[in-house]
Amino acid sequence: MGDAWLVGTVDDPVRLRDARGLRDIARLLAAPRKPVHVTDLIHPVEGQPLLDAGARAEYESRLGDLAVEAVEAARDGDLVRAALARAERDAIVTALEGHDGGDVFERARRAVTTRIRISLDHVEQAAPAIGGHLRTAIRTGTFCSYEPVELVRWDL
Fold first, then answer.
1. DSSP 8-state code for residue 45
2. Most CB contacts within 10 A, which of 35, 74, 122, 138?
């Protein structure tokens, strides 16, 4: 959005200076409940091995399916199914972190997590209700996502 973002309601917008963390958050808000690999949010270090696009697409697809399954299971009160979906997700993420190039993933994960948390602090200071919602709904890690209990429509 250029040099600044408007955060808040139509009646009470607050201007925040552009930051990579805000751009990351916007990317997550644009695709609710869809895991985004940190390498899609941050540019990898030159020469470091990463997953090929096909393999990453397969993992992302499965992680997306698992995210939907976990939400549906929790909504249906099926705690076992929800736990199994989360466990499979965690196993995939752990396997990816151990993949050749895991150090690159770890550095990217830390950088993205830090900049998202800093931006969430700024949003929360400027618009406490929105910041609180985002803090509880945004997940960071090797895969990041926006996981709201109920979908919210955002103007990005």
1. P
2. 35
The pTM is what? 0.64
Q: Is residue 61 in some structural domain? A: yes
Residue 156 in any domain: the answer is no
Which structural domain range is residue 59 located in? 4-146
The residue assigned the tokens 């751009």 is: 23
What's the start-to-end Cα distance of the chain, in Å? 8
Rounded distance, CA 55 to CA 57, Å?
A: 5
pLDDT in tens, 92-134: 777 666 655 556 677 788 889 999 999 999 999 999 999 999 9
The pair of structure tokens assigned to 88 is 């499979």
Residue 153 lies in a domain: no
- Neighbouring C-alpha atoms within 13 Å toward the C-beta of 19: 19
Does 155 fall in a domain? no
What's the number of domains the chain is made of? 1
